[in-house]
Design a protein that fits this description.
- The structure is a single chain.
- The protein is mainly beta and 230 residues long.
- Helices cover 0% and strands 56% of the residues.
- The protein has an eleven-stranded antiparallel beta sheet with strand order 1-2-3-4-5-6-7-8-9-10-11, with no helix packed on it.
- It is globular, with a radius of gyration of 19 Å.
Amino acid sequence: MGFRLPRLSLEGGAVLHYELDRVSAGELSETGVGDRHLGEEDFWGRAALVIGPTRLNAGVVRYVFRGAPAQGGVGSARNTTEIYAALSTTSRYVNPTLEAWWDVERVRGAFLRASVDLPVLGWPFPPYAFVFVQGEMGLNVGQGPNAARPAELSNFAARGPTHVGLGMGTELRAWRLSGIGWTTFALGLRSQLNLDDATRIDGTGRKRDVNVWLWTGITVVLAGDARGQR
């Protein structure tokens, strides 16, 4: 939900991570071994300011984990809060974004992320369709182990690059419902080269240098005059 002015918007919401498959021993999971259930809740709020082709974002995210550590899941000991700021620009050919994240509770350190969206195809007639290539890189500058507090949980194993990602996706703006807005379907393929020992973890005692996955989603904008912006 949110509130919008011509150049300023205030938004907030929640994201629930629900694992759909039954988890076996040794698998990478937030919930842990056993039946499917809710693994994580993320509550967020942000403010966005648009100045021409430039967009400034600042916000806060609260992470709450519901897994069972005794069963290999992620429990409340990893709950934390991050604040962030992001700067992005939009052009005809490339849309770069730079983000800075700061953990203010558990780790108390910074993480940087740079990403770029490259539009490669657009269909300007209903139903509108877009195809894009995405790339990103993460850099840990303060969310690794703390020598002064060795028992403290960290997000990464060392300072430096954490991962490099590359993907392709498509969006189909399917229809517009009167008084509601656009309904958008999205589908994509992502790959990630893991450069930090923490990002290589793929379950109990297992590591993986490269991950590849498919993703899909649907977005319904609940607004009388709904507009989408990438």
